[in-house]
Amino acid sequence: MTIEYIDYGESLGASVGLNLPEPLSDLADACNDNSDFDIVEFRRISKDSYALVVDAGDGTFDAENPVGIRRIERLAFVLNPNLGFPWEVRALRSDFPVTMHQNHVEPNSPRSLCLYVEPWSSVERTWSPQSFLARALWWLRETACENLHQANQPLEQLFFEPADQFVLPEDYFERLTDTGYRIVFDQPLFACRGRFLYQARVVDGKSHPSYRGNQWIPITIILPPITHGRVEEHPRHLEDLLQKLESRGASISESLREAIQDLVPEGQSFDWPADQTTKILLVLGIPLERDGKTERTDVYGFAIDKHLGRLGEDLGALMRSPGENKWFRNTVIMEKAGPLNVDRLDSYPLTPVGIRLMPSKQEVREYSGIAESPCDFSGVISGLGSLGSAVASIWARESWGDWEYVDHDAIEPHNLSRHIALGPCVGMAKSEMMSMQAASMFSLEGSEMSKKNAHVRKFTDDLQWLDGLLEDKDIVIDASTTVEVPRDLSGMDRSARLATIFITPSGSSSVLLMEDQSGYIRSLSLEAQYYRAILTNDSWGVHHLEGNRGYLWVGAGCRDITMSMSNELVSLHASILARQVRLLSDKEEAQIKIWDYDGLSGSVRAHDIQACKPKHAEVGGWTVWWDVSIEGCMSSLRENELPNETGGVLVGFIDRKIKTISVVLARPAPEDSVSTPKEFLRGTAGVEEDIDECRRRTGGIVSYLGEWHSHPRGCHSNPSTHDRIQLDYLEGVMARDGSPAISMIVSDSTISVSLDQQTTMVELSLFHS
User: Fold this and answer.
1) Where is the THIF-type NAD/FAD binding fold domain (predicted)?
2) Model-level pTM greater than 0.90?
């Protein structure tokens, strides 16, 4: 049987002595050294393009394969150094089958085999003539054996990939039937390497659409599912498209007529000069099936540069008003089964265009590698400064959670050095800027409505408003870099979990304090335990909260001040905190974590502090907080000194607004203390220096609170007469600066807390069950 080949280019003969490009000569040499290839001839394809024509085959697959690949195929290895990928392989047999992994070609041109998915910039690093020949044989073999497309590979698209692109909203197909939903395409916003990209713009479709000459008219049709199979060539015209789809069991004639009719409301007309074409964009949504299940819906587009009214006439959808350039819905003729002028549909040439949808939330999560994480929850971010906005932007770009944003401040010019905001945002409320950016990150619609997720106010000024805001929230992120928000929230009756994040003044460390899921360990206790970690860790705590290198005045007022910190450090810590909050938010336990960055080596060291259960006592109009670690420390010091009493100073911090006293540490007895079985007289050696160091390491927050001591075995923890006298003296001293003074006494099984001559006794956790 005679095999017919396509006459591709101009024959130059079979001599390798021709003045050919060196890479093509090298390929010819490789063919001469390989028994699987016989050189037929050289050809000139165009001015700068040459081809080596060979008969290729290694006999490694069944000659009767169902695909129709022959054991010997005539191939043209085409070289065009002016193209982005200089090499192409063409199958010259005129009846070479259409298969998967072929490139789009013009009608009546040889099939183009898709050998590589990587760009030439990657392939050329390892490309050689010998590997190129082997790749061609591999393509023939794998295609013949139907192995080129693996079972776990994404389904093949129905048509080849075109160049120009149209981008649709992520929910375009879901909202097609919504009343008033309409999109338009204006002039292309972007062009890259000669390819144009058009973005859809969602408009108010309540009024009758009035199309302008430079706008596309989209016609969208969703087909019934098509079985995964061969790749089709691009249809040349509308009739060709209908035939190709009908051959796959999908008819769109009726849907196309209805879609065109929907463009012209009842009683109104489509007005357009008869001698001018319209820019029609035909969008097809084609569900692809594998094993009886729809795996995905592919979207294809075709540009039709013809008159919409005349197309509607030929399809039986519209009728022209005699003597006028007006087309109306044809409700009578629509009852017929097929197009009236089916023989004229080949006069509507189709130009393939790419259709892309903005990614859905689920797709964004898959692209970000977080699809397995819990992502559907509601949260609030308080504080949209440099850190808060950076973290919020990361989560928005991952589509992790649904957020509302709270900040009372506006973007100032000096913020731009390390804020995600851009110049045009100066003067805009930070919360509104963040909400609008998050809403528009994957949306083509206007972002004005996104302001409903923004609150321009201080977070805890109105607790009634705050209670309503947090009612349906799962998590609160405090990035305000203040103590007010976490302390105020500690006392609220809420179910939302609180996580506090901040960067230390020097920019070298970042901190995460996250409550447990039950809300038992609140942020006030985590703050105290964080300070204790600083005070008890000499390896990293000594310089952890040391001040910034410098402050800069950005205005005339004494409060117009900002700190000096590189955006590099903000971005570094924002990335760490954003990821860690996401990973840890699914865990039950409370978290105290610190990350230290070494500016010289670039390493980051993590410190994980185990959070302890809090304890508290209501006494003298105050709530005194401590935790089981402090109890354990005092009990251990007591046990070591029995039968003598022991004690020391208490350090911590006071919040007068919420009336809380938080104990951070119970210090051991100074060396000059007097301990006997009946009394304890606390010495003074090193005490003042110790308290000063506590203030220095914590930025002045942790200071002297009062005293603690132990009672002998068998005694209760109530204050003795002598203890009362000592407490009176202590309260007098502390009253000089208006501070309360507390005394804590630990015994065998209880601990007492005294303040203002009032005492509350609490069981030790060791004995409480």
Assistant:
1) 380-605
2) no
